[in-house]
Amino acid sequence: MSAAGHKSLIGCATLLLVLQLSFFFLFLDGASGSGEPNYWYNLTSTRGRNQVLSGGCNLFQGSWVLDLTYPLYDSSSCPFIDPEFDCQKYGRPDKQYMRYAWKPDSCNIPRFDGGDLLRRWRGKKIMFVGDSLSLNMWESLSCMIHSSVPNSKTSFLRKESLSAVTFQDYGVTIYLYRTPYLVDIVRQKEGRVLKLDSIEAGKAWRGMDVLIFNSWHWWTHTGKSQPWDYMEIGNTLYKDMDRLDAFSKGLTTWANWVDLNVDPSKTKVLFQGISPTHYMGKDWNRPKKSCMGEQEPLSGSSYPAGLPPATSVVSKVLSRMKTPVYLLDITMLSQLRKDAHPSAYSGDHSGNDCSHWCLPGLPDTWNQLLYAALVM
Signal peptide position in this chain (predicted)? Predict the structure, then answer.
């Protein structure tokens, strides 16, 4: 064959390879087959802090801007808010904390549309699993959707461990399963035992279409607020151990449960990032302050004290998982919101609550970012 013939064959082969690769990447882009973003399925692990969407959009790096079109609902018109989060009802005099919007540096995020979310989730079961920060986010999402479809029929069930809001016209149920450690606490002859290698409660999480997990705050509790007497690994009891180490062991047990029990083709899994507290003003260079009386976020896009150590534990555990898990990385953007806590304006907590968040308020942004991750 002539040199020209060889060149022609090489040219054809190269063109064919380019076409095959183009088709392959187009296939990947639509692999979910449901009109949803493919990052739910092609993530093999969650490495580092940031979840970056196609097009280079990092939802979690940005700053807060005042937006007078907020809040997205009125607390007095939402039937799902507990007194501990209803700051306006319990006397908070200022309202500006409700009117901040999160603006990512690299893109614009869509405004929340509860009707659209219900249509995407039609016939689905969504469950938040975790502590009172899961409760905070669950009530926020329920209020946001209710405000979007105020005439939709709903049912509301509240129990100690399992609660649910159902939007009956769409067949969508949003559950809350309360379990502050994710792993089990069992009463034994020795007392109350926190079992770092056991998740019997996980039986209640099966069959969900979306699971949104959260844990950390209770791992730091001591004294009378600590709900266990011993920790246990295998058959060995511990009176106590380093709490970050215990959190890592418990979260690893959770990760193993997810890898063994969740089919990622049927169930999407998210982890609600570590929610910060604002009891110590030295964390933002105001040593004599707490969240009490704060009315504005910190400016900029970084927090003077840096990220809490628990965020590293979460990233490390998620990076080892086989199941795709989306990290809703709300830690840093929430650290900037020293103004958004109930402080003295909680109907359930006496004193100064710099741990939970007012509704309407910051958890609405968490849910808006959840919605953005679904539709962008």
Answer: 1-33
Angstrom distances, CA of residue 104 to CA of 97, 157, 317: 18, 36, 26
Q: How far apart are CA 132 and CA 248, in angstroms?
A: 20
**How confident is residue 55, by pLDDT bands cut at 50, 70 and 90?**
low
Active site residues: 132, 353, 356
Give the separation between CA 80 and CA 82, rounded to whole angstroms: 7
pLDDT of residue 374: 84
The residues, any chain, with a CB within 8 Å of residue 85's CB and separated by 6 or more, are: 136, 139, 342, 346, 356, 357, 358, 359, 361
Per-residue pLDDT band for 369 (boundaries 50, 70, 90) equals very high
- DSSP state letters, 318-361: HHT-SS--EEE--HHHHHT-TT-S-BT--SS--S-B-SS--SSS
368: left (phi over 0), alpha (psi -120 to 50) or beta: alpha
Nearest-angstrom CA–CA distance, 235 and 244: 21
Three-state DSSP class for residue 196: coil
The three-point CA angle 32-36-42 to 5° equals 45
pTM over 0.85: yes
CA 186 – CA 192 distance, rounded (Å): 6
Mean pLDDT, rounded, of the chain: 88
What residues contact 234, with CB distance under 8 A and at least 6 apart? Answer: 197
The C-alpha atoms of residue 274 and residue 262 are separated, in whole angstroms, by 22
**Of residues 124, 160, 157, 260, the one with CA closest to residue 202:** 260
Which alpha helices (H) appear in 98-164, and where do they start and end? 114-120, 132-148
Residue for token pair 């609405």: 364
